Amino acid sequence: MTKTRIPAVEGWFTLDDEPHLVGSRCTGCGTVFFPAERTACRNPGCTGLDFEEHRLGRRGRVWSFSTNHYAPPAPYVSPDPFVPYTVAAVELPDEKLVVLGQVAGEGPGLRVGQEVELVLDTLYEDDEHEYVVWKWRPVEPGPNAPTGGVTEGV
Amino acid sequence: MGAHDVAVLGVGMHPWGKWGRNFVEYGIAAARDALDDAGLAWTDVQFVSGADTMRNGYPGYVAGATFSQALGWQGAPVASSYAACASGATALEVARTRILAGLCDVALVVGADTTPKGFLAPVAGERGDDPDWLRFRLLGATNPTYFAFYARRRMDLYGATRADFARVKVKNAAHGLSNPYARYRKAVTEEEVMASPVVSDPLRLLDICATSDGAAAVVISSLDFAARHGAGSPVRVAAVSTVTPRFPNTVIEMPNFSTDSSLAVAAPDLPFRDSIAAAAYEQAGLGPADLDLAEVYDLSTALELDWYENIGLCGPGEAEKLLRDGATTLGGRVPVNPSGGLACFGEAVPAQALAQVCEVTWQLRGRAGDRQVDGARTGLTVNQGLFGHGSCVILTR
């Protein structure tokens, strides 16, 4: 039986072949937030209350990373036996922010400054569902892929 | 002497360990020691400021009242503060400002914790709107994961090595050998650190602080009260900084998924960790050159090196050299973590910032025994609590 693929968290990323993280952008000052801020702009010089959906750029560069060799506590769902995994902090040039994500595949040889792109991968499974999450996958050096931009308001 | 100074009349601690008993028991032991040290009775205390714990049920959320009830209700008003690792400094600040406002003369500040084994975990339940819960669920981003990001940056930017990190542990282990309140009192070699299992690469088990049970308490008063009480020339609190970050905060911090964006507003001149000590220096009218010692929050060995730069002991990228030159070792120019630091204590969250104040107080009184910093007159404590809490205290004598 094929399991249904569902996002491990609702509304934080798109589910297409070229996935994007979905944040928000203040229509007043242009500041981008991920996860999306929809209540009030957190720029102290802005009183904005209106946001549009913002799909973040799919590529960035590794700011730092770490491979974890011990199973974290719940609510992390660890495979049995535990498999080490890498978490990267990735600098997105278009949004001027650093965003975290696990690294898809294994990353020996991952390095600070390396270019990565966003992919979807399984985070954990139960009997009926495969829960997917965004991850960063190293890309070979090359021309930048198109990056995200502002879409219609939400 | 600053217009905003208050006196430290007494300090007390319950030894750190994994005792498995109720946090209240540790808290009242530390409080009674601090009161004895101050030469005051519990009934002399006019205000009680508790640092909360999130792991011990409702009594932990109302620590001020919990400790007051345990010591015997005597009518003093209470406050209870939570600011994660900065809770102790926040509780101290609540008491200090109450004294400086003239609303009371003498206050007791207490923090205590009982911790579970292993990683600190988020509050239980399905908590899909809590970033602290979600970072574990979606990323497996434990606290050491974030510590490792900073360690990796030092390696990449400044050429720090795993051996440098190990040397911090070796130093702190040596400092804490004779500290009766420390949980770990054992010399550690560089080889032992390097041979310990990798937790969050590049950090190993012995690079990362444990979680501990423990308690610390401080009795503070107005300078007038101290003089009337015959305290002579007491250690004084010259500054308490509890600043928050300035937008945009461009360094990734627990428990966040991302930094602020600097798209619309440029990053501030001082990153958050630098701004914590800067505010305290300004308040005290002192600078890094005035320090005789510092107690910094070595959640990891590499993080201690970051703090050297954040509190201005050296410039960016110079911390490894400062360490290698012995400047931060007992006998050096400005010993850091003469208590042994978190490396020897493990973290008892609401007690830890107060434990730092206890250590600096003993140092400035010249009563720190084998770990005494000769002629210490000015010391600084610094740490940072989850969710944007700065914590820095400057003490002078």
Fraction in beta strands of chain B: 15-25%
Number of strands of chain A: 10
Through-space gap between termini of chain A: 36 Å
The structure class of chain B reads: alpha/beta
CATH topology of the largest domain in chain B: the name is Peroxisomal Thiolase, Chain A, domain 1
Q: How many H/I helical runs of chain A?
A: 0
Brief account:
Chain A is mainly β. Chain A is built from no helices and ten strands. Chain A is globular, with a radius of gyration of 17 Å.
Question: Tags for this entry?
Answer:
heterodimer; A: 154 residues; mainly beta; five-stranded mixed barrel; globular; disordered C terminus; B: 397 residues; alpha/beta; Peroxisomal Thiolase, Chain A, domain 1; two-stranded antiparallel ribbon; 14 helices; 37% helix; 18% strand
Report on the structure:
The complex is a heterodimer of chains A (154) and B (397). With 154 residues, chain A is an all-beta fold. In chain A, 0% of the residues lie in helices and 43% in strands. Chain A has a domain of 83 residues. The termini of chain B are close together. Chains A and B meet through strand 3, strand 5, strand 6 and strand 7 of A and helix 5, helix 6 and strand 5 of B.
Task: Summarize the SSE layout with pairings.
The complex is a heterodimer of chains A (154) and B (397).
Chain A: E1 4-7, E2 22-26, E3 32-33, E4 51-55, E5 59-68, E6 85-92, E7 97-103, E8 115-125, E9 129-138, E10 150-153
Chain B: E1 6-17, H1 23-38, E2 47-51, H2 58-61, H3 63-71, E3 78-81, H4 87-100, E4 106-113, H5 131-139, H6 143-158, H7 162-176, H8 190-195, E5 198-200, E6 203-204, E7 213-221, H9 223-228, E8 235-241, H10 272-284, E9 293-296, H11 301-310, H12 319-324, H13 341-345, H14 349-365, E10 378-385, E11 389-396
